[in-house]
Design goal:
This protein has eight helices and seven strands; from the N terminus they run αβββαβαβααββααα. It has about 240 residues and is of the alpha+beta class.
Length: about 240
Amino acid sequence: MSELDELRHDLVVANRILAHQGVVDGFGHVSARHPYNPERFLLSRSRSPELVTLDDIREFDLSGDMIDPDGSSGYLERFIHAAVYELHPEVNGVVHSHSEALLPFGITSVPLKPVFHNASRMGKEVPVWDIADKFGDTDMLVVNMDHGRDLAETLGDNRLVLMRGHGLTVATEALHTVVTTAIYAMVNARVQTTAMQMGEVKFLSEGEIDAAISKAKTATIGHKRIWEYLSRRAGCEDL
């Protein structure tokens, strides 16, 4: 199996995992930068993540245009992915979702911060992007490159950006890590919300976050183990 074929397969698995974990539902999407051409990325045609198959995977350029259009529809918000890959060459995986547990942190002044080890992969800061700041009243969707680039600029050097009244975008160095980061960000939001109801919260320190992320980037065995677990739970053995 070529690197491209393997990535296409893993992208299907990523869709199924995110759906099974409740990060995405009928909406939301995950992409990966093309392994041979950094000016392109892989993303499903417009379909619910739980139903994505290999036949649904398409290639797009960094303007959000489908390579070799075949009449199928792309996601309206594919410009999120295009702009992040355009502005952040270090990013190779992107997830966009509307996880309910994270929404309160995008509409209040309470910052989302890591409170446990596996959530350290969220990074030290989670900015909030508000589409209204630059574009006024919209339908809240990122439907062109201007929207996407503004979002990607707010993301900055971070791994996660909340979208006020909408959801979030996660961007990391690989497909596998963007999937687990999206999952643990959702878990962190639930744990942090519960902890704040109990009393004062002790967050991870910046040093703890740096150390955990650094170790996670080189822990290939751990990545394989969690990916196998999540894949099996999502019923992907026969894909």
